[in-house]
Write a structure and sequence with these properties.
mainly alpha, globular, 72% helix, two-stranded antiparallel sheet
Length: 362
């Protein structure tokens, strides 16, 4: 029981740190264009994240049941997975790099599970067919993580470029003062849409981890002797099916994430909105609309697409419509480097931590 409490606390710590990264990414443009103050943007993000998280939980189900074989997952495995994600998130936050918390957690989960299974690569679900609503769908790390990870930045870049090009064509004869005033208001809605899509897609990964921990503990009988008022901790995954995510987990995670954004999001906001490319409200509107649509669609499909990848590449695409030299190449290279390293780095830390745990426990 003590380990379960530790898992939940560590998972919430990850969610708090996740607030530095992903929610900061989602509000970076609206703060950088000075449409909203950081405090106002954080409140908007908190509310819209919660709404999005409550509406769907496809991503949480993917994390809790679609990436690794649950029989190789223990409470210790989840703690080590979270530790791997936290270490990488803190490092990239300190460097001001908008790396992916999604992929840090996925890498940590795969690394810790691999170590706990004694290097049995079948413990990681790479590709699997499942029948949902009478249709055959593909599950696993390849289809839910790798392909979306490669495709989403390309879609974000091209989508941002196309939308901004279209807006330039529509507004070519408009007065700059009117454009700034109109899109200053419109960006409030696009920022809300971005927060909603983030909640629907990316804010659910910690919810999935906590759900996985409670399913594991329920199956192991850890809650059998608890009093009835703690019955909300019991979560069953009957016949191996993906469990639903309880509402209390969604609400707690959304609140903790908002607190994390308030505490440390400015480092990422500064990189995203000031260093990479200079943006105005119309650019922020285009980037947010592109990224939010990408996140909403993939989130509905249960794909673990990174908010970081989506909004960063959308901003790049929008900036490229001015001229490619408007994008700071050095910053972009640092961001791309962090992206490439995220899965193996977080996975390596989690693997090493799990290996040490087994050595000490054994």
């Amino acid at each position: 029981m003590t380990l379960i409490i530790v898992v939940i606390l560590v998972a919430l710590a990850f969610e708090f740190i996740n607030g530095f990264h992903d929610t900061a990414n989602s509000i970076a443009t609206v703060v950088s264009t000075k449409v909203l103050t950081p405090r106002q943007a954080i409140m908007l993000a908190a509310v819209t994240n919660l709404v999005g998280a409550l509406i769907g939980h496809a991503v949480a189900k993917t994390v809790s049941s679609g990436l690794v074989d649950a029989k190789f997952v223990t409470t210790a495995t989840i703690i080590c997975a979270l530790f791997g994600g936290i270490v990488w998130n803190l490092l990239t936050w300190w460097l001001g790099l908008p790396s992916s918390s999604t992929h840090a957690l996925v890498g940590g989960l795969c690394g810790a599970t691999l170590a706990n299974s004694q290097n049995n690569w079948k413990a990681i679900i790479w590709s699997a067919e499942k029948v949902k609503d009478g249709k055959v769908v593909m599950e696993g790390v390849l289809h839910k993580v790798i392909w979306p990870m490669l495709a989403s930045p390309v879609i974000g870049l091209i989508g941002g470029f196309i939308i901004m090009t279209g807006l330039y064509a529509l507004l070519r004869n408009a007065r700059p003062m009117w454009v700034n005033r109109f899109f200053g208001r419109a960006q409030i809605f696009s920022a809300g849409y971005m927060g909603f899509a983030h909640g629907l897609a990316d804010a659910q990964k910690t919810m999935g981890i906590i759900t996985l921990a409670l399913v594991t503990a329920t199956a192991a009988g850890s809650f059998d002797h608890l009093p009835s008022w703690l019955s909300f901790l019991h979560i069953n995954a009957e016949n191996g099916a993906a469990p639903d995510v309880p509402v209390w987990i969604k609400i707690v995670c959304a609140i903790i994430m908002a607190a994390g954004t308030s505490a440390g999001g400015w480092r990422i906001i500064k990189t995203m909105g000031h260093k990479m490319v200079k943006i105005q409200p119309v650019h922020g509107f285009a980037a947010e609309t592109t990224a939010a649509t990408l996140l909403a669609v993939t989130g509905k499909l249960g794909m673990t697409v990174s908010t970081t990848h989506s909004i960063t590449t959308a901003i790049m695409g929008v900036g490229a419509t001015k001229r490619f030299s408007a994008i700071d190449g050095k910053i972009v290279k640092r961001i791309l480097g962090a992206w490439v390293l995220t899965l193996p780095a977080a996975g390596g830390v989690a693997y090493a931590t799990m290996w040490l745990w087994l050595k000490i426990a054994g």
